[in-house]
Amino acid sequence: MSHPHRNAGIDGLPLEILLEIAKYTSLQDRVRFAQVSRTFRGVGLAPLLWADLRSWPNMRPFTMAHLLGRVLPSLVHLRLRIECTCNEDVVPYAAILYRFLPRIKDLYLEVRCDWSWQMDCALRQSAPVLKSAHIQSATDVEFDFQIFGGVAPMLETLWLDAITFDVPQPVLDTVRNF
Questions:
Q1: What SMART domains does the entry give (predicted)?
Q2: Chain-centre distance for alpha carbon 161
Q3: Using CA atoms, how far apart are residues 62 and 163, in angstroms rounded to an integer?
Q4: What is the dihedral of CA 88, 90, 95, 101, to 10 degrees?
Q5: Rounded Cα–Cα distance for residues 44 and 22 (Å)
Q6: Percent of the chain, pLDDT > 70?
Q7: Residue 74's pLDDT band (cuts 50, 70, 90)
Q8: Rounded distance, CA 154 to CA 30, Å?
Q9: Distance (Å, rounded) from C-alpha 32 to C-alpha 23?
Q10: Could you tell me if 155 and 129 are in contact, meaning their C-beta atoms sit under 8 angstroms apart?
Q11: Which one in 36, 46, 101, 151 has a CA-CA gap of 20 to 30 Å to 128?
Q12: What are the angstrom distances between the C-alpha of 38 and each of 16, 35, 85?
């Protein structure tokens, strides 16, 4: 009995395999991946794929909000570099960080413009799942507030570049690497 010759294309792979393949692509490639077919779109929009936003450091605020919205309720790894031409440019980033900080597990934040009170407000939010944070400023900054609202029980590692504290920081009690 002869079997008809079937071409098994990549679309014929199980969704779990396609998801595993997509994990090894950049965020830009994941956007393209989701545009190939309906099957790829379903895989490409899986929240698990968007939980690691470290490979796209120069995100625009709209893109960042859109991608973080896809991830919920998953935890997020975020690498963000904010380079401003004027200090008001930091405001939309601060608003998004304010909204999502409670879901961020790993944060790398580099602010290459003057610090703003809006960014202070964002970093005053509690960070219940944050395990690692690296916060860097282009100018010297003194925090006159408790970072992460003093609540970051999972925080193990904290790196601060050009940042000092003016008030006691209870969150440092859990930090192993400072």
A1: FBOX
A2: 19
A3: 27
A4: -160
A5: 7
A6: 88
A7: confident
A8: 30
A9: 13
A10: no
A11: 46
A12: 15, 8, 40
